[in-house]
Amino acid sequence: MRIMVTGGAGFIGSHIADAYLAAGHEVLVLDALWEHGGGRRQNVAQRALFVHMDIRDEAITRIFQEFKPEIVSHHAAQASVAISSRDPVYDAQVNVTGLLNVLENSVRYGVKKIIYASSGATFGTPERFPMNERTPQRPESPYGITKMAGEQYLRFYQNERGLDFTSLRYGNVYGPRQDPNGEAGVIAIFIGKFLAKEDVRIDSDGEQTRDYVYVRDVADVNIASLDRGSGGMYCIGTNMRTSVNEIYRQLAEVAGFEAPIVHAPKRPGDARDAQFDYALAKKELGWEPRTQLRDGIRETYEYFKDALPVSR
Ligand SMILES: NC(=O)c1ccc[n+]([C@@H]2O[C@H](COP(=O)([O-])OP(=O)(O)OC[C@H]3O[C@@H](n4cnc5c(N)ncnc54)[C@H](O)[C@@H]3O)[C@@H](O)[C@H]2O)c1
Hints:
The protein is an alpha/beta fold. 39% of the residues lie in helices and 18% in strands.
């Protein structure tokens, strides 16, 4: 199939593009290489077509016209909670108006299906764990709000314009190519600090938890969604809660030493816990996470050991 991956030069999108190529599909990556995102030209495989373009650009029409994608995997986004809080207007321009530009062109040029990168951030702070598809969505950041609005637009475009979709609400994705200098992505950030032999900052008491899902497992669910999960919205996680302290402990084991820790106050707006029940994705998409956290951390550490400049 011909598949357009928006945001395909970024952390998650590039793994998805690689997985589609490996499965024999034709891939076009469309990415603006936004300065505050994780997009890098070198993340894009040689075999993929690459278009350096903003999803808000009207010229995107030409790309749809020429490439004629059958599937659009929509991973381009303003993906930072912090930036969305500082600049909600920009967040909405990319995550809502940009999405609408993609959806309009998808309808116009006969795309069969959109696979949409949604987020656990659409839930906010739930009353009960684990979260599943029946958990009420009460997003607490502009980013969570625009990701949730995106899902509502998908429903509209399916009902009114016949454009099929699958929405994947990811937990905390980690793995090779994640930006170690970003403000989120604790595993990549900690690995960067370990390798540079710098202090590791742990906010609050470090007992706050997240559901860490390995990026290749996320790529797998994007393969499964090519022909399953019509009109579905799925929680994509491991159904496990792991604390920041536990991440530090596992990383120290893999690295063979303990980096110095500095403690910092709780960051405003940071949720205490997250855990995603993936039972519906298992049932309807035939997907479940395969990578144990320890193995994923080890693979990510090995990747960064080769990829990052060694200091000191
Ligand atoms: N990383 C996570 O844990 C996580 C969790 C839930 C959802 N998501 C979603 O998954 C997707 C990928 O996230 P990621 O972590 O790989 O981030 P990333 O920053 O590495 O990837 C996003 C990509 O989108 C591109 N982009 C940004 N603005 C654009 C624009 N206006 N036009 C075209 N391209 C643009 C960036 O250059 C980047 O390559 C995003 O939609 C994000 O919201 C990520």
